[in-house]
Amino acid sequence: MINIENLTVKYGGVVALDHLTLSVADDVVGLIGPCGAGKTTMTNAFSGFASIAEGNIVIDGMNLLALPPHKRACWGLARSFQKVQIADDLTVADHLKAVCDAKGVKSKDRAAQINHALDFVGIADCADTIGEKLNPYQKRMTEIAKCLVGQPKIVLLDEPGGGLSETEMLDLRRIITQVKARFGAHIIMVDHDVDLIRDVCTSTAVLDFGKLIAFGPTRDVLQDEAVKTAYLGR
Ligand SMILES: Nc1ncnc2c1ncn2[C@@H]1O[C@H](COP(=O)(O)OP(=O)(O)OP(=O)(O)O)[C@@H](O)[C@H]1O
């Protein structure tokens, strides 16, 4: 169970997250809202890139915010970025090894974890390919595989489908919905793609001006009048 309690983040006079309180337990949770609503700030609060004015994030009884950012990764917090973080001159396997280094994965476990993650996202044949030779789909899958080594507990995905074709999006849906069963990690996904959110997120939270305006089963949330007005433009 992830309990976000009274979470407040300010940038000078801008209140990016305003006393946000939310409890989530689903395998895949969506986070949506208009531009500037506070979605990235929330993922930054989890990973330690936002300075917290007030509040807590408590996961299975553990206060995440008490851990320094690098220890959050070792504990099991993983994050993918909207703009993929892939170096041109490193192979796919090198990227995953670097994450294993950062997370302190034991040498004897590395190969198995890397193979498992690459098999799962379907790019095992790219293990020795350098970043500049990967196509956009393979880069996206590498970004997700990076999140899956080191026994993650929570994976934050920021627009994981950016730049993918319709067929590739079908693969992405299958991958996202199987992460909990195959790796044991919960996913919190930020996206503007309402179809993707509807298909893979059992529950969804909606932010507007840093406040939570709706939370619940995704289908109900997407029918909510306040959500339609603030976000869906209907
Ligand atoms: N480093 C910063 N300094 C000052 N203000 C910031 C900073 N980062 C974000 N903000 C402001 O905080 C608010 C929330 O921004 P945030 O990026 O979290 O929104 P978002 O929902 O992720 O938006 P988008 O969908 O456009 O990515 C916005 O008003 C934004 O301008």
Automatic annotation (TrEMBL):
Tell me where in this chain the ABC transporter domain is found: 2-234
Q: Which GO terms describe its molecular function?
A: ATP binding; ATP hydrolysis activity
Q: Which residues form a coiled coil?
A: none
Q: Where on the tree of life does the source sit, at the highest rank?
A: Bacteria
Task: Answer yes or no on keyword Nucleotide-binding.
Answer: yes
Q: What keywords would UniProt list here?
A: ATP-binding, Nucleotide-binding, Plasmid, Transport
What is one term from the GO cellular component aspect held by the record? plasma membrane
Give one Pfam family.
ABC_tran
Name of the protein described by the UniProt record: ABC transporter ATP-binding protein
Species of origin: Yoonia rhodophyticola
